[in-house]
């Protein structure tokens, strides 16, 4: 299961999209890649801009770069195809995503991702290195294939196969205090679990209208916002019964923490059904809280982790309930999450927004005793 921001300008401008590169519109891919485009169109990649992502916008509206500088430092990962990305990333410049600019609202576009030829690893955050050749796309096809619309590189780019394609943005983000605000700490491997194999599993449907393939990798990008059901297989729920208590075991089989973004909080809900009687148990929270001076703080201010009870990679955690189960009891177990920690709703002015307040059911199971 796998999960962003600013970099040294000189290094960034030299190798990433610096506002000089132009990218084909994602709409142009639809004619041939109809199913893939429909998946992409509803994904967070297509909706990564402040105007399309309400939660991101709520955080960004408080960022000093926005309030004081009128500059969008998140553009490196949220609007990478923007025609003025160099200005968004440069200190002293004023450039923010505009609603009426197509390149600003393209999100992480089809052409942008498929022109990533390599990843540069850095301490603060990684960088995607973009091919300068337009319509020169990388992918994972093993056999030769031709297209009347663009050139296809077959297996030259190993990053699409080992999952490292994603770590330009989803590896880590270190703020000025040296705190990793958001990190996957993932070790991708080809042939094993990785960003692509987990979040872009193979689904039915050909790669394109002119392809003979039966399946393609899912471009809806399963995650906390959408299609989380595709990730249920990586979390296991089990029950262990003792004479005067029982344990609910939650096993995170993924190679990174269950939830990565510090705004999110996971909740384990357990209820005993005894005949007509319902016996809800105390909720167990899994959360990572970052802050400063002992109080929760925004990502650009925080310098420490105040609390971290989030399920770690490959962790199997037992939650104890001091109830003696009886013959005929049913134990209902629900694991879900909020995209925004309820304690952060009011400061972000999101308390009346469904996307921020909705409880997302991830996995549920009923155990009978």
What can you see in these coordinates?
- It contains 11 helices and 18 strands.
- The chain is of the alpha+beta class.
- It has 2 domains: 9-222, no CATH class; 229-368, Sandwich (Immunoglobulin-like), CATH 2.60.40.10.
- Strands 11, 12, 13, 14, 15, 17 and 18 form a 7-stranded antiparallel beta sheet that branches.
- The radius of gyration is 22 Å and the shape is globular.
- The model is unreliable at 1-17 (pLDDT under 50).
How many strands, what sense, and barrel or not for the largest sheet? 7 strands, antiparallel
Shape verdict = globular
Rounded mean pLDDT is 90
Low-confidence stretches: 1-17
SSE ordering = HHHHHHHEEEEHHEEHEEEEEEEEEEEHE
> Strand percentage, roughly?
25-35%
Number of domains: 2
Structural class: alpha+beta
Estimated helix fraction:
10-25%
- Tally of separate helices: 11
* Terminal Cα span: 32 Å
Number of DSSP-assigned strands: 18
The Rg value, from CA coordinates, equals 22 Å
Which SSEs are present, and which pair or pack?
Elements: H1 9-15, H2 34-41, H3 54-60, H4 64-69, H5 75-78, H6 85-89, H7 110-113, E1 116-120, E2 127-130, E3 136-138, E4 151-153, H8 159-162, H9 167-170, E5 172-174, E6 180-183, H10 195-199, E7 202-204, E8 215-217, E9 235-241, E10 246-252, E11 265-274, E12 277-280, E13 284-292, E14 295-296, E15 304-308, E16 316-321, E17 330-338, H11 354-357, E18 359-368
Parallel strand pairs: 3-4
Antiparallel strand pairs: 1-2, 5-6, 7-8, 9-10, 10-16, 11-12, 11-13, 11-17, 13-14, 13-15, 17-18
């Amino acid at each position: 299961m796998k999960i962003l921001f600013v970099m040294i300008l000189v290094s960034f401008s030299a190798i990433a999209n610096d506002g000089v590169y132009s990218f084909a519109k994602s709409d142009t891919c639809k004619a041939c890649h109809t199913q893939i485009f429909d998946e992409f169109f509803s994904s967070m990649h297509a909706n990564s801009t402040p105007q399309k992502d309400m939660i991101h916008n709520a955080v960004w509206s408080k960022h000093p770069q926005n309030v004081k500088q009128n500059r969008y430092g998140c553009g490196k990962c949220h609007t990478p195809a923007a025609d003025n990305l160099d200005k968004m990333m440069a200190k002293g410049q004023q450039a923010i995503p505009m609603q009426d600019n197509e390149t600003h609202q393209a999100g992480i576009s089809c052409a942008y991702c498929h022109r990533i030829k390599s990843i540069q690893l850095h301490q603060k955050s990684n960088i995607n290195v973009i091919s300068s050749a337009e319509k020169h796309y990388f992918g994972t096809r093993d056999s030769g294939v031709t297209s009347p619309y663009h050139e296809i590189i077959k297996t030259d780019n190993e990053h699409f196969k080992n999952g490292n394609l994603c770590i330009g943005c989803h590896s880590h983000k270190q703020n000025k205090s040296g705190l990793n605000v958001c990190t996957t700490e993932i070790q991708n491997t080809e042939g094993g679990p990785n960003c692509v194999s987990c979040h872009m599993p193979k689904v039915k449907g050909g790669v394109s209208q002119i392809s003979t393939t039966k399946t393609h990798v899912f471009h809806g990008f399963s995650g906390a916002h959408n299609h989380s059901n595709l990730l249920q297989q990586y979390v296991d729920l089990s029950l262990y019964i003792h004479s005067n208590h029982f344990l609910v075991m939650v096993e995170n089989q993924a190679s990174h923490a269950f939830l990565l973004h510090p705004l999110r909080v996971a909740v384990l809900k357990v209820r005993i059904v005894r005949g007509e009687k319902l016996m809800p148990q105390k909720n167990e929270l899994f959360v990572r809280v970052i802050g400063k001076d002992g109080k929760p703080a925004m990502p650009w201010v925080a310098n420490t982790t105040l609390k971290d009870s989030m399920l770690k990679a490959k962790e199997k955690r037992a939650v104890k309930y001091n109830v003696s189960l009886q013959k005929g009891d049913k134990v209902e177990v629900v694991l879900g999450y909020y995209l925004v920690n309820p304690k952060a709703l009011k400061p972000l002015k999101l308390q009346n927004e469904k996307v921020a307040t909705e409880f997302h059911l991830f996995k549920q199971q009923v155990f009978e005793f």
